[in-house]
Specification:
Length: 246
C-alpha cells in the first residue's frame, strides 16, 4: 500500500472510530506500528490530526479538506499501477533510473523494489520517501517544492539533474495533443523535465488516456524527441504513427 493510500485509510478509520489505536491500525493496514507512527507524525505536521498517546485525534476542518484531496490523488490509481508494471519491465538490474515528481512515476516504486542494484534519482518528495521505504538507493534533486504536487523544481533541481548520467527516464505530462505535443500547466516542472531529457539515454512518457487530446499552457516538447509512451489505451492515431518511426 502506497503512502497516499495509507494516509487516506488512516483518516477514514479515525473518522469512523476516533479511539482506534496505532496497533489496531497496523493490523488493519498490514504495516508495522512504526510505519503508522511515521504516518501520524506526517499528518500531525500538516495539521490534519493531533497525536495522542497510542493514537490520534482528527482536526476536523483540516481532515474534511484532506480526505477529498487524497481521494483525488488516488484517482486512476489502478490505471497508473498497470502503467507502472509495464514501465518496470523496461528496467534492468544495475540501471540508473530517473523519475519525475508525477503520481504516474510514483506508481513504479513497488515494481522497482524487485530489481537489484538500482540507483534512482527523483524530483518527487513522496516518491523519494517511498523509494527509501523500499530500500532502494535514492537521490532527490532538491530545490523549491511545489506544494500542489510535492515536486521539487527550480535551478537547484535542474543543476543537480545535469550532473547525472541516467539510463532511463520515466515522466508524465498534463496534456498530450492529437499532434503529439506534450504540454504542462507548470512552467518550472516542464523546464525540469527538459533538463532530465538531456541526461537520460531513453525517455519514456507515462500518459493515461485522460490526457489524450488535451493542450495545456506550456509546451514541453514533441513525442518525436522521446523513445516511448506507456498508456493503458491505444495512442491517438497521429501520435501512434509518430512513435512507429522511432
Amino acid at each position: 500500500m502506497m503512502i497516499g493510500e495509507r494516509h487516506r485509510r488512516i483518516l477514514e478509520e479515525l473518522k469512523k472510530n476516533p479511539e482506534i489505536t496505532v496497533r489496531e491500525l497496523s493490523i488493519l493496514l498490514s504495516v508495522s506500528e512504526p510505519t503508522v507512527r511515521r504516518d501520524f507524525t506526517e499528518l500531525h505536521r500538516k495539521g490534519i490530526i493531533t497525536k495522542i498517546y497510542g493514537g490520534a485525534i482528527l482536526n476536523q476542518g483540516a481532515a474534511d479538506r484532506e480526505i477529498p484531496f487524497l481521494l483525488r490523488e488516488n484517482e486512476k490509481s489502478s490505471v497508473k499501477t498497470e502503467m507502472g508494471a509495464k514501465a518496470a519491465e523496461m528496467v534492468k538490474d544495475g540501471m540508473v533510473v530517473m523519475l519525475d515528481g508525477s503520481t504516474s512515476a510514483y506508481h513504479l516504486v513497488p515494481y522497482l523494489a524487485r530489481k537489484k542494484d538500482l540507483i534512482v534519482v527523483t524530483s518527487g518528495a513522496k516518491t523519494a520517501v517511498a523509494l527509501a521505504e523500499a530500500n532502494i538507493p535514492t537521490f532527490c534533486t532538491g530545490g523549491k517544492m511545489l506544494i500542489h504536487s510535492f515536486s521539487y523544481v527550480g535551478e537547484q533541481a535542474e543543476s543537480f539533474v545535469r550532473r547525472i548520467n541516467a539510463d532511463l527516464l520515466f515522466f508524465s505530462c498534463h496534456g498530450l495533443s492529437d499532434e503529439g505535443q506534450m504540454t504542462e500547466r507548470a512552467i518550472e516542472e516542464a523546464d525540469l523535465r527538459r533538463a532530465m531529457f538531456g541526461v537520460c539515454k531513453e525517455k519514456i512518457l507515462l500518459c493515461d488516456s485522460s490526457k489524450f487530446g488535451k493542450t495545456c499552457f506550456y509546451n514541453m516538447g514533441s513525442v518525436s524527441e522521446i523513445d516511448g509512451i506507456i498508456s493503458e489505451k491505444p495512442l491517438p492515431p497521429t501520435v501512434a504513427e509518430m512513435m512507429k518511426r522511432k
